[in-house]
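Here is an idea for our session: we take a single protein and study its fold together. To get us started, please write out a protein record for me. Once you have written the record down, we can walk along the chain together.
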Amino acid sequence: MPEKNLSSKPPAIFLMGPTATGKTDLAITLYQTLPVELISVDSTLVYRGLDIGSGKPTQAQLEIAPHRLIDCCEPNKPYSAASFRKDALKEMEGIVNQGKIPLLVGGTMLYFKALQNGLSPLPEANAKIRKELEEEAKITGWPALHNKLKNLDPKAAARIEPQDKQRIARALEVFKVTGKPLSNHFEDLGDSAFPYQLTALALVPEETERKSLHDRIEMRFDNMLKKGLIEEVIGLKARGDCHLDLPAIRSVGYRQVWQYLDGVFGYQEMREQAIAATRQLAKRQLTWLRHWEGVYYFDYRGSSLKEEVISNLSKLF
């Protein structure tokens, strides 16, 4: 684990992990124990009105431990990794100026990667190519285009769901415009200097305990339904400015409930599809983490998890 920071760079902490591993609870404990301020790293929590299905910290939790970069965007507006990096670096600077350490907590691995490594400039949208892809999708379907992406850019395809037409189209569009896979653009970064001494932690299941995480995901989604997730999505539909092509509404859980309300499938199928999609999300998050260098892994179910993390992070101060 980390030793006292001897770098001229100020320290920063990443607390990562797949969905449903208790990151929020641990982050609150760390906030109460160590001189840290919290920044959310979650592509759904940025949206106002997406509270239940995103697993957003409750108002009571936020009063105990405020999280920055929550509720900073309307659901009818896209919010990008580039936007996150810009906003997060600004918040981190403010925290350091207060004499505290930024602790970034969440499960959106692309945001973490963009923050640490920067983002390569990508070509602007090409309307002609996008229209050609949409016409092809009408004939073959988006899963077929996803298969095409697998052949051209398997790394990008592994992180994109077969029904996520916007991200599939963008990845194929970038390849057609540049002749280079989208994943290569993220590896060939421009201004990537990260002005912090990073300590990265990850809450993960033991390899033999994946079923426990799957069970936890199922219980978590059922609890969201009990808390009023369907009513929350009804409210989003009633706004009149949201639709399924928006990143907020494509989020896991929201998309399936939206389709259920549209009559695409029944309640039980909605539940099953949402749980399956969440498990796939957790699998992709773990794939990201397996390839992340310099991460300290903790079993999220460990009986002394909080004590272990606090003990090890205390060496930074």
User: Anything to note?
Assistant: DSSP finds 15 helices and six strands in the chain.
